[in-house]
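Severity: low
Component: inverse-folding endpoint
Summary: output formatting inconsistent between runs
Steps to reproduce: submit the following structure tokens with default settings.
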């Protein structure tokens, strides 16, 4: 047989295995690092959810990076709040009691009344003095005014009621400013928690196009401004205009609410997510079905995340960064390796037992 002659026919090599529609959804678990199928899936995801352009002058921020930023800011603010509470509790021991404060107020009122009486006696006024809410002309001229303790208490109580609670205010020294560049109606229906409404129409104003928060965060050290919308149509325009006007610390949230609805469906947003951001599920026959309509409810204007929302964001972030399938594979590999080691140790112990039994039997024959 000559060497030039091939073994078999080349037609068998070119022949393809027929595909079965029943197993099309089954994917390979082997990840070589250069899988063409996963690369094509990644390209499809980019074309579907993102709008990359070559002439972009703004920077982008991933949704996962933004989730990590939220968790870090919330943890740091909670630590600072606990430290402030402990310091306030420690300094509260040195304050005076309520009885001492009442005695002090009575002494102050008595001294003020005596000063007013002496002023009236020096002026030769023998009329009876009427202590009303308004100060007399003589006391105003002499620089002494009446103190209405009830009115002061009411004023302090009203200030305490009107002042927002810590949960209703933004995080102190928050490193990011989140701007929703959609219309106000869309902002009221759904938005990311801690986001400010900043419609893109405000950029077309000739006078005062920016809010006070935007001016505070513009090119500030250690702070960034993040803009977002539903699918990068409006946010890219707003980011381009603001970068052209000198904003150097501006970022655009990649994917917007559309990617958030896929990766963080709960915990990050408030209100009902728009139907355009929800991905339509596919049926078993391969046809796209209409997304189930969720009950519409108005969004709450909140500046902080609750503990439950932070826990959900943490769980979803761990699922994205460390998929459960990888964990299951790792656990299965560890279980198989442990099983192999146990079987090998069992075999070695059995062989050593057999060898010792043979030695004993040989000695008995001798």
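Observed output (run 2 of 3):
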């Amino acid at each position: 047989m000559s060497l030039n002659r091939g073994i078999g026919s080349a037609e068998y090599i070119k022949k393809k295995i027929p595909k079965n529609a029943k197993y099309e959804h089954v994917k390979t678990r082997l990840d070589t690092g250069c899988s063409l199928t996963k690369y094509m899936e990644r390209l499809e995801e980019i074309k579907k959810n993102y709008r990359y352009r070559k002439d972009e002058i703004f920077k982008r921020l991933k949704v996962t990076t933004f989730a990590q930023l939220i968790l870090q800011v919330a943890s740091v603010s909670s630590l600072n709040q606990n430290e402030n509470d402990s310091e306030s509790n420690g300094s509260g021991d040195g304050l005076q009691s309520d009885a001492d404060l009442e005695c002090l107020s009575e002494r102050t009122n008595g001294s003020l009344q005596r000063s007013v009486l002496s002023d009236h006696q020096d002026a030769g006024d023998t009329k009876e003095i009427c202590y009303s809410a308004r100060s007399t002309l003589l006391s105003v001229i002499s620089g002494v005014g009446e103190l209405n303790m009830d009115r002061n208490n009411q004023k302090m109580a009203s200030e305490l009621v009107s002042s927002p609670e810590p949960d209703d205010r933004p995080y102190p020294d928050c490193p990011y400013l989140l701007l929703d560049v959609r219309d106000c109606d869309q902002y009221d229906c759904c938005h990311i928690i801690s986001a400010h409404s900043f419609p893109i129409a405000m950029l077309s104003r000739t006078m005062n196009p920016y809010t006070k928060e935007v001016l505070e965060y513009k090119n500030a050290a250690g702070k960034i401004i993040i803009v977002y919308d539903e699918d990068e149509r409006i946010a890219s325009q707003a980011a381009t205009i603001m970068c052209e006007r000198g904003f150097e610390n501006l970022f655009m949230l990649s994917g917007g609410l559309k990617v958030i609805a896929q990766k963080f469906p709960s915990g990050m947003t408030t209100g009902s997510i728009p139907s355009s951001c929800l991905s339509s599920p596919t049926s078993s026959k391969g046809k796209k079905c209409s997304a189930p309509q969720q009950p519409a409810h108005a969004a709450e204007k909140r500046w902080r995340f609750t503990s439950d929302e932070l826990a959900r964001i943490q769980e979803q972030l761990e699922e994205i960064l460390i998929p459960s399938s990888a964990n299951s594979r790792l656990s299965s590999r560890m279980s198989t390796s442990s099983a192999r080691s146990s079987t090998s140790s069992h075999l070695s112990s059995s062989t050593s037992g057999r060898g010792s039994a043979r030695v004993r039997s040989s000695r008995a024959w001798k």
